[in-house]
Design a protein that fits this description.
mainly alpha, single chain, about 120 residues, two-stranded antiparallel sheet, flat
Length: about 120
Protein backbone atom coordinates (compact mmCIF):
# COMPACT_ATOMS: atom_id res chain seq x y z
CA UNK A 1 0.00 0.00 0.00
CA UNK A 2 1.46 3.30 -1.01
CA UNK A 3 -0.09 6.15 0.85
CA UNK A 4 0.97 9.76 0.61
CA UNK A 5 0.53 12.72 2.89
CA UNK A 6 0.79 16.36 1.94
CA UNK A 7 3.88 17.56 3.77
CA UNK A 8 3.30 21.25 3.12
CA UNK A 9 4.24 23.35 0.14
CA UNK A 10 2.29 21.07 -2.17
CA UNK A 11 4.78 18.21 -1.80
CA UNK A 12 3.71 14.72 -0.87
CA UNK A 13 5.60 12.43 1.48
CA UNK A 14 5.28 8.65 1.56
CA UNK A 15 3.74 7.34 4.79
CA UNK A 16 5.41 4.49 6.62
CA UNK A 17 3.41 1.75 8.35
CA UNK A 18 3.55 3.42 11.76
CA UNK A 19 2.24 6.74 10.45
CA UNK A 20 -0.52 4.97 8.53
CA UNK A 21 -1.47 2.96 11.64
CA UNK A 22 -1.56 6.15 13.73
CA UNK A 23 -3.80 7.92 11.22
CA UNK A 24 -6.21 4.99 10.96
CA UNK A 25 -6.48 4.48 14.73
CA UNK A 26 -6.12 8.00 16.12
CA UNK A 27 -7.62 10.20 13.42
CA UNK A 28 -10.26 7.81 12.08
CA UNK A 29 -10.89 6.10 15.42
CA UNK A 30 -10.64 2.54 14.09
CA UNK A 31 -9.89 -0.21 16.62
CA UNK A 32 -6.21 -1.27 16.44
CA UNK A 33 -7.09 -4.97 16.22
CA UNK A 34 -9.30 -4.29 13.19
CA UNK A 35 -6.55 -2.30 11.44
CA UNK A 36 -3.91 -4.94 12.17
CA UNK A 37 -5.88 -8.16 11.69
CA UNK A 38 -8.92 -7.66 9.47
CA UNK A 39 -8.62 -4.49 7.42
CA UNK A 40 -8.24 -4.97 3.67
CA UNK A 41 -5.95 -2.88 1.49
CA UNK A 42 -8.86 -1.46 -0.52
CA UNK A 43 -10.36 -0.09 2.71
CA UNK A 44 -7.14 1.75 3.55
CA UNK A 45 -6.95 3.26 0.08
CA UNK A 46 -10.58 4.43 0.22
CA UNK A 47 -10.18 5.95 3.69
CA UNK A 48 -7.00 7.80 2.80
CA UNK A 49 -8.30 9.01 -0.55
CA UNK A 50 -11.38 10.53 1.11
CA UNK A 51 -9.89 11.55 4.47
CA UNK A 52 -11.06 15.16 4.08
CA UNK A 53 -14.71 14.09 4.16
CA UNK A 54 -14.45 13.21 7.85
CA UNK A 55 -14.02 16.86 8.83
CA UNK A 56 -15.91 18.45 5.97
CA UNK A 57 -18.99 19.17 8.12
CA UNK A 58 -16.90 20.97 10.74
CA UNK A 59 -15.25 23.10 8.07
CA UNK A 60 -18.61 23.90 6.47
CA UNK A 61 -19.97 25.05 9.86
CA UNK A 62 -16.88 27.22 10.33
CA UNK A 63 -17.41 28.77 6.91
CA UNK A 64 -21.09 29.42 7.65
CA UNK A 65 -20.24 31.22 10.88
CA UNK A 66 -17.52 33.29 9.19
CA UNK A 67 -19.84 34.08 6.29
CA UNK A 68 -22.64 35.18 8.64
CA UNK A 69 -20.33 37.52 10.52
CA UNK A 70 -18.78 38.90 7.32
CA UNK A 71 -22.17 39.41 5.63
CA UNK A 72 -23.57 41.23 8.65
CA UNK A 73 -20.69 43.70 8.44
CA UNK A 74 -20.73 44.15 4.66
CA UNK A 75 -22.90 46.36 2.49
CA UNK A 76 -22.29 44.11 -0.54
CA UNK A 77 -23.77 40.66 -1.10
CA UNK A 78 -21.12 38.01 -0.64
CA UNK A 79 -21.06 34.24 -1.03
CA UNK A 80 -19.73 31.75 1.53
CA UNK A 81 -16.95 30.84 -0.91
CA UNK A 82 -15.83 34.48 -0.90
CA UNK A 83 -15.05 34.14 2.80
CA UNK A 84 -13.48 30.68 2.77
CA UNK A 85 -13.02 28.29 -0.13
CA UNK A 86 -12.27 24.58 -0.03
CA UNK A 87 -11.02 22.06 -2.60
CA UNK A 88 -14.42 20.36 -2.66
CA UNK A 89 -16.07 23.59 -3.83
CA UNK A 90 -14.74 22.85 -7.33
CA UNK A 91 -17.58 20.78 -8.80
CA UNK A 92 -15.81 20.17 -12.10
CA UNK A 93 -13.53 17.60 -10.44
CA UNK A 94 -16.48 15.74 -8.90
CA UNK A 95 -18.37 15.78 -12.20
CA UNK A 96 -15.35 14.38 -14.02
CA UNK A 97 -15.07 11.51 -11.53
CA UNK A 98 -18.71 10.48 -11.92
CA UNK A 99 -18.96 10.72 -15.69
CA UNK A 100 -20.37 7.54 -17.20
CA UNK A 101 -19.18 6.29 -20.55
CA UNK A 102 -21.35 4.42 -23.07
CA UNK A 103 -19.45 1.23 -22.21
CA UNK A 104 -20.23 1.69 -18.52
CA UNK A 105 -23.90 2.21 -19.29
CA UNK A 106 -24.18 -0.87 -21.50
CA UNK A 107 -22.32 -2.99 -18.93
CA UNK A 108 -24.72 -1.87 -16.18
CA UNK A 109 -27.73 -2.50 -18.42
CA UNK A 110 -26.51 -6.07 -19.09
CA UNK A 111 -25.98 -6.66 -15.36
CA UNK A 112 -29.45 -5.31 -14.54
CA UNK A 113 -31.04 -7.50 -17.19
CA UNK A 114 -29.11 -10.53 -15.93
CA UNK A 115 -30.33 -9.82 -12.40
CA UNK A 116 -33.92 -9.49 -13.56
CA UNK A 117 -33.68 -12.72 -15.56
CA UNK A 118 -32.40 -14.73 -12.60
CA UNK A 119 -34.72 -13.21 -9.95
CA UNK A 120 -38.08 -13.21 -11.72
Amino acid sequence: VQQWRNSGGGQKKRLDGGELFAILTLQFGLPPEYVLDRMAVYEINALMRHADRRERGDWERTRTIAFTVAQSQSTKRIKPTDVLSFPWDDTTEDERETEMTADDLSRLERKAQQYLDTNT
